[in-house]
């Protein structure tokens, strides 16, 4: 079917809009990558605005030779894997129970969950609660306070309502299956898409988590990667602003602070950048699930 002139113009405008959005999204990433391997002199003067100039890997060498970086990677990987497992164990059974119409009081429970999305006790009461439970300066402070997210429970509940037929459960009940066995043997195998989506959402959140560590942790051996990178960045900036023995030393400290800044950004987000292309379809699926009326 031949397109009219107005239809061709509309398609061209769509392509132009998408191209502009692609530039807006990609330019900051390309700039950070280029700045991390460019001479800071070109970056600070604005001569480097897209492609690298004065190639150097000094920033990465300074960051990666720091032993705390590898300790932070180890801790963050542990927090991400263990935290995501706890999140799934809490979120999925809760969402499944709330999706079943025969559960009494589920409306009240859902109202309480939604209420937590609008109001919370605040930072000080939360800290006092975590402290009273003896979790301050332990790995549990990074895992349990964020064991479930209200929005993820709502999204998972929507999935169970629309994709797990009640007839399958009734057939299993007639065969003598208990509710727990029905959930493990029937519901979970049918729910791999939402499990993957929730795992990704929670995993990204744990990987980028630093605020809980900043509040609850004082032992460097427990610090996640993001907190170590923050310390390196703050320390380098402080050194660059302190009085030095000479102008040359001050200039060198400023140059090191500038080159470390961009290398730190890349080190922190590189694993997610590598994983995202392989997991993109799950993110898209999660957006579609969340858009359905529950």
Question: How is the topology of this model organized?
Answer:
Elements: H1 5-36, H2 40-44, H3 58-64, H4 67-99, H5 106-118, H6 123-132, H7 140-143, H8 150-163, H9 166-174, H10 179-190, H11 192-207, H12 211-216, H13 225-241, H14 247-291
In total, the number of domains comes to 2
What do we call the CATH topology of the largest domain? Answer: MetI-like fold
By secondary-structure content and strand pairing, the structural class works out as mainly alpha
What is the overall pLDDT average? 83
Helix and strand element order: HHHHHHHHHHHHHH
CATH architectural arrangement of the largest domain: Orthogonal Bundle
Tell me the name of the CATH class of the largest domain.
Mainly Alpha
Tell me how many strands there are: 0
Main sheet attributes: strand count, strand direction, barrel closure: none
Give the terminus-to-terminus CA distance.
39 Å
Q: In percent, how much strand structure appears in the residues?
A: under 5%
Number of helices: 14
If you compute it from the alpha carbons, what radius of gyration comes out, rounded to the nearest whole angstrom?
25 Å
Could you estimate the helical fraction of the residues in percent? over 70%
Poorly predicted runs are: none
Give the overall form.
Answer: flat
């Amino acid at each position: 079917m031949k397109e009219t002139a107005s239809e061709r113009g509309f398609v061209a405008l769509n392509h132009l809009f998408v191209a502009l959005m692609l530039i807006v999204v990609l330019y900051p990433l390309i700039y950070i990558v280029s700045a991390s391997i460019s001479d800071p002199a070109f970056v600070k003067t604005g001569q480097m605005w897209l492609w690298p100039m004065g190639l150097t890997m000094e920033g990465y060498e300074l960051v990666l030779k720091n032993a705390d970086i590898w300790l932070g990677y180890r801790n963050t990987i542990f927090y991400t894997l263990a935290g995501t497992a706890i999140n799934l164990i809490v979120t999925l059974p809760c969402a499944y129970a709330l999706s079943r119409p025969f559960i009494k009081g589920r409306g009240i429970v859902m109202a309480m969950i939604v209420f937590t999305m609008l109001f919370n006790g605040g930072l000080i009461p939360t800290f006092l609660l975590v402290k009273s439970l003896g979790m301050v300066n332990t790995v549990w402070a990074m895992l349990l306070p964020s064991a479930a997210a209200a929005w993820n429970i709502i999204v998972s509940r929507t999935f169970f309502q629309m994709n797990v037929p009640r007839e399958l459960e009734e057939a299993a009940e007639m065969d003598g299956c208990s509710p727990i066995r029905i959930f493990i043997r029937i519901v979970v195998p049918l729910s791999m898409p939402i499990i993957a989506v929730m795992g990704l959402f929670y995993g990204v959140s744990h990987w980028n988590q630093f605020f809980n560590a900043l509040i609850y942790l004082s032992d460097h051996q427990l610090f996640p990667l993001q907190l170590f990178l923050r310390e390196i960045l703050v320390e380098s900036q402080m050194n660059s602003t302190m009085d030095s023995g000479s102008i040359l030393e001050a200039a060198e400290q400023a140059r090191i602070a500038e080159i470390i800044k961009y290398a730190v950004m890349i080190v922190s987000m590189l694993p997610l950048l590598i994983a995202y292309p392989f997991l993109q379809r799950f993110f898209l699926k999660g957006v579609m699930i969340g858009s359905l009326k529950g």
